[in-house]
Amino acid sequence: MTKNILITGAAGTIGTTLLSLLIKQDGLNITAFDLKSKKSTKSLNNLKNRVKIIYGDISKKKEIIIACKNQDIVIHLAAIIPPLADDHPKLANDVNVEGTRNIIEALEEFSPNAFFIFSSSIAIYGDRIKNPDIKVTDQLSPSEGDEYALTKIKAEQLIQNSKLNWVIFRLTAIMGSKNHKVSKLMFHMPLNTPIEIATPEDTARALVNACDHRKELNHQIFNLGGGENCRILYKDLLSGSFRIFGLGKLDFPENAFAEKNFHCGNYDDGDNLEKIIHFRQDTINDYFHRLEQTNSPVKKTLAQLFRKPIQKWLLKQSEPLNALKKNNTALISRFFYTDK
Hints:
This protein is α/β, with parallel strands linked by helices and 340 residues long. It has a domain at 3-182 and 197-228: NAD(P)-binding Rossmann-like Domain (Rossmann fold, 3-Layer(aba) Sandwich). It is built from 15 helices and twelve strands. The strands form three sheets. Strands 3-2-1-4-5-7-10 form a seven-stranded parallel sheet, sandwiched between helices. A three-stranded mixed sheet has the order 8-9-11.
């Protein structure tokens, strides 16, 4: 029997990886939905003969309704993510919260039996430096200034109060060889933060496998991470990346990185999802290997030549360090322990 499946945010890193898996399966009518841009059209154009592509804005209900009609499965990935979400909280709320509301209402009317798979985030647990082992039942306590996390909590509440069949996956840090974008968030995370990553490949595999386990997953929330073999300290993750990119040692001055008030940790109950849908194949070494493969020798050589100016430019992005230089007491309190 043919199934109709809708992917929102289809042009993103997880979305494109997911589509590459779905098009290999028989019996699926796939609809890819995303905001139209140069990036999204470039990402989806080569799939136009394999999937139905709809460009639109999920924050506008009229534009999402057509995509939500007669769907059996909906995988909702579309979201405004940090740092854009934190810098523009209204935009984040319009897309992440109201956009989710629009999809829910459209599905309740036009596809009431659809299985709704939602990608939430580890960010909703907030700072876990002192207690890094995370469970779904833990208190949700977003870090100060994390507007993205707040929108994910609101979206989760909308889903749980809906009439739909649903499952929520709280995704850990998704680290792939193609989604490396330098931003000020690099310095928001304390160097001693334990991280359990998941690759886009494993994440996409989880979403695909979830489609066949509706009964076991329905009306539940799961932490989605790569497991024990994907765990590392943030300082070691950065050091490995710097080496691969040709940037030398991770050598930044004291106080360049925040001491607190970010997120990430290890999923203490992450095996619960793995036991049901069996999606994990990658390790932290696989991540580094793929990263090395995608970084050309030319780029690495150039980075080695211009290592110092690149590191100087990166340091300018450090909001914790800039807060100290400008004696911004509010940001100092946000990024550092002030009672030492």
